From TrEMBL:
Cited InterPro entries: AAA+_ATPase (IPR003593), ABC_transp_ATP-bind (IPR050319), ABC_transporter-like_ATP-bd (IPR003439), ABC_transporter-like_CS (IPR017871), P-loop_NTPase (IPR027417)
GO terms of biological process kind: transmembrane transport
Gene3D superfamilies referenced in this protein's UniProt entry, alphabetically: P-loop containing nucleotide triphosphate hydrolases (3.40.50.300)
Molecular function terms, GO-annotated: ATP binding; ATP hydrolysis activity
Keywords from the named record: ATP-binding, Nucleotide-binding, Transport
Organism, as annotated: Candidatus Scybalocola faecigallinarum
Domain ABC transporter: 5-249
Protein name listed in UniProt: ABC transporter ATP-binding protein
Highest taxon, organism lineage: Bacteria
Family of this protein: Belongs to the ABC transporter superfamily.
Upper classification of the organism: Bacteria, Bacillati, Bacillota, Clostridia, Lachnospirales
Length: 262
């Protein structure tokens, strides 16, 4: 099976206050396959969110290559990014911060439909409401503002907006970590349902190994900008090969498996 995303020797550099650069992501390589849920875990500051931002071209790569359906998108800019965002979308940790507070949720969800040519002229409001329903929200949420909804509801709306262009890939960057446990389970249930019904591939960045164990097919462990381990969730959590991966697993309290709630 050919990968839908391939990352080759990716490096991303940041500059410290002293103007010295350092590698936040250092020679990272991996593939994402169609229909797969790929987890990326590691301690805070290990580079996992930087990988996500580089994949979506929010920050530049210093070296290496990023390939989407075999096409090199490493240095794509401007209008050509639309083709990338039609296929790959991102869901952030704090959904309210990713919405314009002066726009209704419906207007924000309609934007990618208009900007990327995914919407049908004169039918945008219907499509917005269908996306809301798909993500477990009633149609009236289209008229609400971000400050008028709960964190879980706002994240559902953010997922609806991410689905608007009809992507093949969702990158979830700590998409549940700002939510309480019950709402986390509901959002995980939604993502599982969307994966199955919409045929999505997901990159799931998370520090909660219990969620990773239940949800992911394969897991990458990052430490200090590098991938230090790769395997199934059980391999990475219960039989880690490296000391750093072992310490990460030992620091986590794994909750018992639970049924996702829609």
């Amino acid at each position: 099976m050919e990968p839908i995303v391939e990352v080759k020797n990716l490096c991303v550099n940041y500059t410290r206050r002293e103007k010295e650069s350092f590698a936040a992501v250092d020679q990272v390589s991996f593939c994402l396959y169609p229909g797969e849920v790929l987890g990326i875990v590691g301690e805070s500051g290990c580079g996992k969110s930087t990988v996500a931002r580089a994949l979506t071209r929010l920050i530049p790569a210093a070296q290496g290559g990023i390939f989407l359906d075999g096409r090199d998108i490493t240095h794509v800019r401007g209008r050509k990014l639309k083709d990338v965002y039609k296929k790959m979308q991102m869901v952030f940790q704090f959904p309210a911060q990713s919405f314009d507070p002066g726009k209704t949720l419906g207007d924000s969800i309609a934007e990618p439909l208009k900007n990327m040519g995914a919407g049908q002229i004169g039918n945008l409001q219907f499509q917005v409401r269908q996306l809301l329903l798909l993500c477990g929200l009633t149609e009236d949420f289209a008229e609400r503002y971000p400050h008028e909804v709960s964190g879980g509801q706002c994240q559902r709306a953010a997922i609806a907006r991410a689905l608007a262009p009809g992507p093949q890939i969702l990158i979830c960057d700590e998409a549940t970590s700002a939510l309480d446990v019950t709402i986390q389970r509901q959002i995980m249930g939604l993502l599982q349902s969307l994966k199955e019904t919409q045929g999505l591939s997901l990159i799931f960045i998370c520090h909660n190994l219990a969620l990773v164990q239940e949800f992911c097919d394969r897991v990458l462990v990052m430490h200090q900008g590098k991938i230090i381990e790769e395997g199934t969730p059980d391999q990475v959590i219960f039989s880690p090969k490296t000391d750093d991966a072992r310490r990460l697993a030992e620091s986590a309290i794994l909750a018992p498996a639970a049924t996702y709630m829609l």
